[in-house]
Design goal:
Radius of gyration: 20 Å
Order of helices and strands: EEHEEEEHEHHEEHEEH
Oligomer: single chain
Structural class: alpha+beta
Helix content: 10-25%
Number of helices: 6
Strand order of the largest sheet: 5-6-10-8-9
Distance between the termini: 64 Å
Largest sheet: 5 strands, antiparallel
Strand content: 15-25%
Length: 242
């Protein structure tokens, strides 16, 4: 990988070695910024050959220091920001296929342009990346309605520890072909492989919104209210035919 700025050394690595809340400070051998799955494969193979620890980093928006290297200076940070291509928006199948370095906000915008909704949303949408969101099984403000990133994922492409590629990049919903291996990588924090691409679920845009401020007497009443509202929503969306 010889492209300009594909590798960062010295003081140029400083922003990648400090966590979002400035509580954790580490040191890195270098920061590698691959631009494609092929370059990522080369990096992983090189690290495996020379026993170099890898710290995957997708946006560096973690609040728990998980994307920060230790203080040894022997780790290679792999930052995914240059792997930022949209592969396909399929409005008919309600899917979008993206590189791991595409930000959540970019996915939301692309979905909206196709008159679709990608429902995952949280405060770091403009800077967090899809690969990191998947690796941490991120949630956000719409979890009760649409689920975590795990529920929003149909397929993955993953680079394994030896540099081989696991090919699971498909948008098939009714897939009963054995083990659902992609679920091993969602939420695994990069310990089993580095996510390079993903196929994500899209939804039709909501036709109406309603916001209410409701005073409840206890958490139990709040849960009961949520249950009743979910039942009402289900009845509206799927009315019984007579």
């Amino acid at each position: 990988m010889t492209e300009s700025h594909g590798l960062l050394f010295g003081e140029n690595t400083a922003p990648y070695c400090l966590d979002q809340r400035r509580r954790y400070q580490g040191q890195a051998l270098a920061v590698a910024r691959p631009k494609s799955t092929e370059q990522l494969v080369e990096l992983v193979k090189l690290c495996a050959q020379h026993h170099i620890a890898m710290v995957p980093q997708g946006g560096n928006t973690s609040l728990c220091g998980a994307a920060t290297p230790d203080s040894s200076g022997h780790s290679l940070i792999i930052a995914f920001e240059r792997m930022n291509q949209f592969i396909e928006v399929d409005a008919d199948n309600n899917t979008i296929t993206v590189d791991a370095g595409v930000t959540l906000q970019q996915v939301q915008t692309a979905a909206l342009a196709a008159n679709r909704l990608f429902p995952a949303n949280w405060g770091a949408a403009a800077s967090c990346q899809i690969g990191g969101a998947l690796a941490t099984n991120a949630g956000g403000v719409n979890v009760l309605r649409y689920g975590n990133m795990r529920e929003l994922t149909l397929g993955l492409e993953v680079v394994l520890a030896d540099g081989t590629i696991w090919h699971g990049l498909r948008g098939l919903r009714k897939d009963n072909t054995g083990y659902d291996l992609k679920q091993l990588f969602v939420g695994a924090e990069g310990t089993l492989g580095l996510i390079s691409r993903a196929v994500l679920r899209l939804y039709p845009l909501p036709t109406a919104h309603a916001t209410a401020l409701i005073d409840v007497d206890s958490p139990a009443v709040a849960v009961e209210l949520l249950r009743d509202l979910q039942a009402l929503k289900s009845a509206i969306e799927s009315p019984h035919l007579s």
